Amino acid sequence: MESLTLRELEAEANRRLEPAVADYFSGGAGDELTVHANESAYARIGLAPRVLRGAGEPDLSTTLFGQRIAMPVLIAPTAFHRLAHRDGECATARAAHTADTILIAAMASTEAIENVAAAGNGKLWFQLYLQPDRTFTESLVRRVEAAGCTALVVTVDSPVFGRRERDIRNGFTDLPAGMYCENLRDAGGAPGTPVRSIAFSTALSWKDVEWVRSITRLKILLKGVVHPADARMALECGADGLIVSNHGGRQLDTMPATIELLPDIVDAVGGAVPVLLDGGIRRGTDVVKALALGATAVAIGRPIVWGLAIDGAEGVAAVLRMLRTEVERTLALCGCHSPKELNRDFLRFERREEAWRQH
Predict the structure, then answer these.
(1) Collapsing DSSP states into helix, strand and coil, what is residue 63?
(2) I want to staple 228 with a disulfide (CB 3.0 to 4.6 A). Which of 67, 104, 243, 268 is the partner?
(3) Contacts of 25 (CB under 8 A, 6+ apart)
(4) CB atoms within 10 A of CB 29
(5) SS3 162
(6) Could you give the domains of the chain?
C-alpha cells in the first residue's frame, strides 16, 4: 500500500537502511529529549480557522531574497546522502528542481557542491561550518560562489560535536570505503586531493561572522540562533536571515522545541530579515503553525532522507509533494489563500502542564 504520511515513509525507510545508518539519521544527542520535543510540541498548538472568507485556491508561492519558490518549504542541510542512496545529494537536487524549491546543500555532503549544482535548478544555498583555517574557508566560499549558490547558511550552534550515543554504541565513526565529504577537499576540491575533517572550535565568535560577511556578497543566514539577544547581534553583524534550529536535537539535548523558540526570535528581529525554522516538521499543519508564528519558511531534513532511501530523487519529490498537498489543504481549511495571511490569531495554545498530565 502506498504510504499516506511521512511517518509511514519513515518506517519504510528504516526497514531499508542498514540499522547503524538508520540510527545515524534518526538519532540525537544525549537522551534525545530535544529530538522528540521538536515533534511533540506541535500537538500543543491548535489551529483556529476562519470561515466564509472567499479565499479561493491556495497559492503557496514564496519569495526569499528575490528568488521565487513554489512553496515555503526548503530542504534542510543534512550530511551523507549517499548513505541513503547511491545518487546522494545529486538525487536530492533533482527533487528540489521538480518541487521548485531551495536545497541547502550540506558542507558534509558526499557529492561535491559543483555536482550538486549541476544536478539542480539553480535554487541552491550552501551550509557552512566556520573553520578556524580561514584560508581553507575562503577557498570553499569561492567554490560555492562559482557553483552558483546564492546564500551561505552558517551553522553557529556547534562549538563542539554533540554526543550522539546511538552512533557510539554502533561504532559509527567513519564513512564506508570510497565515500568522502567531497566539499572538504583541499586544492579547490579537485578529485584525488586530501579530504579534511570538519573542525569545531570554541574560539569562534561574532568576529568570524563579520569576517565571512566581509569576503562575500552572498546572502548570509545564521542557523542555530535561538536567543533574542543573539538574534539582535546577528543583525548588527550583517546577517541577512536567521534559521531557528536546535540541530534536530543532535547537539545540545534538553533544548526546547524550535516551534517554542520561534516567536521570541521573530519578535526580536521585528521583520528586519526573514526568519526560517527547522526541526520536527512532519505534517502540513506543522508548516502552517510555524508560518502563523512568523516564520517566512520552514526546512525539512530527516523526511528528505527517508524519501531518498526509498526511491532516490523520486522518493524525495514524493515527500515534498505530500507535504505540499497537506499545506494546501490546511490553508484552505483555515480560510486562507496565501501563507501571507497567516498570523498568531489562527493559533490556540495548550498549557504545557495539561499536556504533560495527558501523556
Answers:
(1) strand
(2) 268
(3) 17, 78, 83, 84, 302, 305
(4) 24
(5) coil
(6) 6-358 (3.20.20.70)
What's the burial of 178, exposed, middle or buried (CB within 10 Å: 0-12/13-18/19+)? exposed
Write down the catalytic residue from 85, 247, 337, 359: 247
* 124-129/151-155 β-pairing: parallel
Backbone angles phi, psi at 63, to 5 degrees: -120, 130
Rounded CA Rg of the chain: 19
Cell reading at 348: 490556540
> For residue range 150-163, what is the model confidence (pLDDT) as tens digits?
999 999 999 999 99
Q: What is the pTM of this model?
A: 0.95
pLDDT of residue 133 exceeding 70? yes
Burial of residue 346, with CB atoms counted within 10 A of its CB: 0-12 exposed, 13-18 middle, 19 or more buried: buried
Close Cβ partners of 259 (under 8 Å, ≥ 6 residues apart)? 38, 41, 42, 45, 277, 279, 280, 286, 289, 290, 293
Q: Phi and psi at residue 297, in whole multiples of 5°?
A: -165, 170
